[in-house]
Automatic annotation (TrEMBL):
Pathway: Cell wall biogenesis; peptidoglycan biosynthesis. Keywords: Cell shape, Cell wall biogenesis/degradation, Peptidoglycan synthesis, Transferase. Belongs to the YkuD family. The active site is at residues 132, 142. The keyword Cell wall biogenesis/degradation applies. Residues 1-166 form the L,D-TPase catalytic domain. It comes from Sphingobium amiense. This is L,D-TPase catalytic domain-containing protein. GO terms for biological process: cell wall organization; peptidoglycan biosynthetic process; regulation of cell shape.
Length: 167
């Protein structure tokens, strides 16, 4: 297992010899047990890297070793604590609140799904904590890097790797 290290206070991500700036949540970082839905906080801890979601036509899946799939119209991620599918991929539209994985900006052209609050999900303890592309501002609780940095890093990630978010 190789660890992607995120130093939240420094805004720095390190993987082997690669060092790059990163953005975290608008609420800063917080202990995982203090994480709440919608607080904008990036949860501290070590989170398994689960899979990659790619926007068709925006990124080529060259040399990706992690499980991956294309994002389709209607793909979403439940962010409603009342939803039985909370913090899981869902199809839109749906009766519960969910975030669309198709966005007008480029942030979700690449989504690396992190295993935060997913085994099993605890309602209200944070959903959709992703590693994605930066839009030049803090995230809603995710970790984000510039497109060029993500495209350099993505082929190096392997099943079993994890992201460790530190204060």
């Amino acid at each position: 297992m190789t660890i992607v290290q995120v130093e939240s206070a420094a805004g720095r991500l390190t993987f082997g010899d690669l060092v790059m700036p990163c953005a975290i949540g608008r609420g800063g970082s917080c202990a995982a047990d203090a994480k709440r839905e919608g607080d904008g906080c990036t949860p501290l801890g070590r989170w398994p890297i689960r899979a990659v979601l790619l926007c068709p036509g925006k990124v080529a899946p060259r040399e990706i070793r992690l499980p991956w799939r294309w994002v389709r119209v209607g793909d979403g991620w439940s962010d409603d604590p009342a939803d039985p599918a909370y913090n899981r991929p869902v199809r839109l539209p749906r009766a519960f609140s969910a975030e669309s994985l198709i966005r007008a900006d480029a942030a979700y052209d690449v989504i690396v799904v992190l295993g935060h609050n997913d085994a099993p999900p605890r309602p209200g303890r944070g959903s959709a904590i992703f590693f994605h592309l930066s839009e030049g501002r803090p995230t809603a609780g995710c970790v984000a890097v510039e497109r060029e940095d993500m495209l350099r890093l993505l082929p190096m990630l392997r099943p079993g790797d994890a992201m460790e978010i530190m204060a």
